[in-house]
UniProtKB/TrEMBL annotation:
Gene3D superfamilies: FAD/NAD(P)-binding domain, HI0933 insert domain-like, Translation factors. It is an enzyme of class 1 (oxidoreductase). It comes from Natronospira elongata. Residues 8-397 form the RsdA/BaiN/AoA(So)-like Rossmann fold-like domain. It holds the Pfam family HI0933_like_1st. Its EC number is 1.14.13.-. This is NAD(P)/FAD-dependent oxidoreductase. InterPro entries: BaiN-like (IPR004792), BaiN-like_dom_sf (IPR023166), FAD/NAD-bd_sf (IPR036188), RsdA/BaiN/AoA(So)-like_dom (IPR055178), RsdA/BaiN/AoA(So)_Rossmann (IPR057661).
Length: 399
C-alpha cells in the first residue's frame, strides 16, 4: 500500500471557518493541510455582501443565532468576538465601514478578506490544496484520507465543508454524510436567508410592483419553532418577495405558515386614519397612504384591496378593513427559492454531540465540525461569518 503523507491537522473545506481554523492551528506550530474540491478557496467570501463581504457585526450576540441548542454557540462567540476579527482586519490595513445596524463591510472588495486569510495561512506555513476530492475517511489512531491526489493521514480531522446553499459555488452534503458515517445525528436541513415565492394569483397581483422596496415589520415562526420579528426593508421581486426583512424571517418560517408584514411599522394606522378623516376629510386614501408608502405601492394597494375613497366617506368599518390589509398584511408564501439562492443552510450536525469549547465530537476523538455545517445559523448582517471565525478559532486552538 502506498505511503500516506502525514499531517498533524487536516481541514476539509477552505472557506471562512476552515481557513480561520488553519491559520490558528498553524500559528501554534501544527503542521496543517487544507483540502478543498473547488478550483479556488473562499468562494462564498468572494461573493458575500454583494462583493464587499459583510465580514462581521459589531453587535453580534448569541441572540442572533438559531440552533436547536441555543446555548451551544455562546462559548466560542464569547472567546472570539467581532472586535477580535476587526483587529485582524485593521492589522492588515483593510479599509471598512459600517453600512447599518453594526454591519461591517469592506470598502473595496471581498477579496481583501480572502487575501488576509491566505496571508495569515502562508505565514503559519499552512498547506492548501484545491481541486481535491476526498473519497474515503478511515479512523485508526488518527485518520486516513483517500483522496483524488493520494493518501493523507492526520491526528485531527476538521470538517469545514459548509452548508448546501449555492451548489454551483461548490456546496456539498459531504460534511453531513461524514457526520452520519461516524454515527452523529444531522438535524433536518433547510434553506435560510432566502426569498419567498408566491402562488400564481398573488404574483399576478403584485408583479408590477417588482423593484419596489418599503420598510416593514416582518414576523414569522412560532408554530413548531421560535418566533421573530424584524424591522427592515421588503423588496417585491418578479418571483415573490425579498429584501432584508424577508430574508431574516425566512429562517423562522415553515412551509404552510403565514408571515405577518406590517406595512406601517412606525404608525398606529387606525389612529392616523381617524385623525386624517377629521382633519383632511376631502383627501383620498391613496394620497394619505402615499405619505408613508411609495406612490406605486399605495396605488396598487388601493386598486387591489382598499379602493380609493375620500376619507370623509370612510366608516369605522372601512378603517378596520384598511387595517386588516396593512397592519399586518397576512401573507402565505408558496415556498422559498431554496438552496439555489439561499445565503445559509439551517440545521446540520447536532451540537449536542460536540464540545462547545472545542467543536470536537464527543464520541470520536480528534474529529471536529466547524462553521455552517454545524446546526448554528446566524441572522443576516455579518453574523454567519462571525460564527465561522469563532468556531474556526475554537477548534484551531486545540487541534
Ligand atoms: P463555506 O461555504 O464558506 O466553505 C465551505 C468550503 O468547503 C468551500 O470552499 C467548499 O468548496 C468546500 N467544500 C464543500 N464540500 C466539499 C467537499 N466535498 N470536499 C472538499 N471541499 C468541500 N455571511 C455573512 O456573515 N456576511 C455576508 O455578507 C454573507 N453574504 C453571503 C452571500 C451569499 C450569496 C451567500 C451564499 C452566503 C453569504 N453569507 C454571508 C453566509 C456565509 O458565506 C457562510 O455562512 C459562510 O461562508 C460559512 O462558512 P464555512 O466556512 O462554514 O463554509
Amino acid at each position: 500500500m502506498s505511503q500516506s503523507q502525514a499531517y498533524d491537522v487536516i481541514i476539509i473545506g477552505a472557506g471562512a471557518a476552515g481557513l480561520m481554523c488553519a491559520l490558528t492551528a498553524g500559528q501554534r506550530g501544527r503542521r496543517v493541510l487544507v483540502l478543498d474540491h473547488a478550483n479556488k478557496v473562499g468562494k462564498k467570501i468572494l461573493m458575500s455582501g454583494g462583493g464587499r463581504c459583510n465580514f462581521t457585526n459589531m453587535f453580534s450576540t448569541p441572540d442572533n443565532f438559531l440552533s436547536d441548542n441555543p446555548h451551544f454557540c455562546k462559548s466560542a462567540l464569547s472567546r472570539y468576538t467581532p472586535w477580535d476579527f476587526i483587529a485582524l482586519v485593521e492589522s492588515h490595513g483593510i479599509p471598512y465601514h459600517e453600512k447599518k445596524l453594526g454591519q461591517l463591510f469592506c470598502d473595496r472588495k471581498s477579496r481583501d478578506i480572502v487575501n488576509l486569510l491566505l496571508h495569515e495561512c502562508q505565514s503559519a506555513v499552512v498547506e492548501i490544496m484545491t481541486r481535491i476530492s476526498v473519497l474515503e475517511v478511515i479512523k485508526d489512531e488518527g485518520f486516513r484520507l483517500q483522496t483524488s491526489a493520494g493518501l493523507y493521514s492526520c491526528e485531527s480531522l476538521v470538517i469545514a465543508t459548509g452548508g448546501l446553499s449555492i451548489p454551483k459555488m461548490g456546496a456539498s452534503g459531504f460534511g453531513y454524510d461524514l457526520a452520519r458515517q461516524f454515527g452523529l445525528t444531522v438535524l433536518e436541513t433547510r434553506a435560510g436567508l432566502v426569498p419567498f415565492t408566491l402562488d400564481e394569483r398573488k404574483l399576478r397581483d403584485l408583479s408590477d410592483l417588482s423593484g419596489v422596496s418599503t420598510e416593514v415589520e416582518a414576523c414569522a415562526g412560532g408554530g413548531s419553532g421560535p418566533h421573530a420579528c424584524f424591522r427592515e426593508n421588503l423588496l417585491f421581486t418578479h418571483r415573490g418577495l425579498s429584501g432584508p426583512a424577508i430574508l431574516q424571517v425566512s429562517s423562522y418560517w415553515r412551509p404552510g405558515e403565514a408571515v405577518e408584514l406590517d406595512l406601517f411599522p412606525a404608525q398606529a394606522l387606525a389612529d392616523t386614519l381617524k385623525q386624517a378623516r377629521r382633519e383632511t376629510p376631502r383627501l383620498r386614501l391613496k394620497s394619505l397612504l402615499s405619505n408613508w408608502l411609495s406612490r406605486r405601492l399605495a396605488e396598487r394597494w388601493c386598486e387591489l384591496y382598499l379602493g380609493n375613497p375620500r376619507l370623509a366617506d370612510m366608516s369605522d368599518k372601512d378603517v378596520e378593513d384598511v387595517i386588516a390589509y396593512c397592519q399586518p398584511w397576512q401573507l402565505r408564501p408558496s415556498g422559498t427559492e431554496g438552496y439555489r439562492t439561499a445565503e445559509v443552510t439551517l440545521g446540520g450536525v447536532d451540537t449536542r454531540q460536540l464540545s462547545s469549547q472545542t467543536m470536537e465530537c464527543r464520541s470520536v476523538s480528534g474529529l471536529y465540525f466547524i462553521g455552517e455545517v454545524v446546526d448554528v445559523t446566524g441572522h443576516l448582517g455579518g453574523h454567519n461569518f462571525q460564527w465561522a471565525w469563532a468556531s474556526g478559532r475554537a477548534a484551531g486552538e486545540v487541534v
